Backbone:
């Protein structure tokens, strides 16, 4: 009687071939993006820089949108013997004409965009109820929400025009899912930042629905890291709250690996919302 199991029907004792559905490793799956164009906003920061570096190492043409050319050039100079290349495109993502010009340059130079990583973001120290905070409130919303939407609009336009099944990555935050509880008697650190990140959570779902409606075949993913070494949230919070200095943190490379994971899923799989935290985090 034939037995049930992997060797059923193979009475010769030979080892069965592995199923074709076994996933290849990320390096192998990243080959689909070799020579393709990725736009990374905020690449002068810790997380954006790590993401840009990994995409370049994987053979992509990375266009870093940043107001700080010097920091991007420093990153570019550190990349030796890599398959791809890194370009700095000076751009203030809160300025519509800047965004249009940047994506126009990318289209004229490389043909268009295949991946967009919306990483640029700001956090301010002001309270929502603090006097003379208007400029800070606008800065947070214009960068974290409006800038993200402007870049997404131009990227989707490029992808649809070229019939590219691209991918949009929104670097969100755990504060896009939960507002941190301030210790009674201490100054709250939240301000407008959680509101802007909650908006990114909602925007990601809205974009997903629009991509389906437009029949693009493009994916969108929200990646929400906890505290990350060197990022704006850790830096600003550490300056205001001593305990943040001693809290566990992710490395920027951990977030970059999450991006690679999201963009290398099979065509029928979309990682919509990915939350990653350092071990022991208590936010």
Residues:
């Amino acid at each position: 009687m034939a037995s049930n199991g992997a060797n059923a029907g193979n009475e010769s004792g030979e080892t069965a071939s592995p199923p074709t559905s076994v996933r290849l490793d990320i390096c192998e799956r990243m080959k689909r993006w070799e020579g393709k164009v990725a736009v990374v906003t905020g690449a002068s920061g810790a997380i954006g820089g790590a993401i840009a570096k990994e995409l370049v190492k994987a053979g992509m043409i990375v266009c870093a949108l940043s107001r700080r050319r010097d920091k991007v050039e420093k990153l570019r100079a550190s990349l030796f013997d890599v398959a791809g290349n890194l370009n700095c495109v000076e751009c203030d993502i809160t300025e519509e004409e800047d965004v249009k010009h940047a994506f126009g340059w990318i289209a004229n130079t490389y043909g268009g965009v295949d991946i967009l990583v919306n990483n640029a973001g700001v956090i301010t120290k002001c309270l929502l109820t603090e006097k003379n905070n208007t400029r800070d409130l606008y800065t947070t919303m214009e960068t974290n929400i409006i800038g993200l939407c402007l870049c997404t609009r131009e990227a989707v336009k490029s992808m649809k025009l070229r019939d590219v099944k691209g991918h949009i990555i929104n670097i969100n935050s755990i504060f896009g899912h939960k507002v941190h509880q301030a210790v009674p008697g201490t100054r709250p650190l939240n301000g407008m930042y959680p509101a802007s990140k909650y908006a990114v959570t909602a925007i990601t779902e809205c974009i997903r629905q629009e991509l389906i409606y437009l029949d693009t075949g493009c994916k969108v993913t929200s990646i929400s890291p906890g505290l990350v070494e060197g990022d704006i949230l850790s830096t600003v919070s550490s300056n205001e709250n001593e305990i943040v200095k001693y809290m566990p943190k992710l490395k920027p490379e951990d977030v970059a690996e999450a991006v690679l994971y999201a963009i290398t899923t099979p065509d029928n799989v979309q990682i919509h919302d990915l939350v990653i935290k350092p071990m022991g985090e208590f936010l």
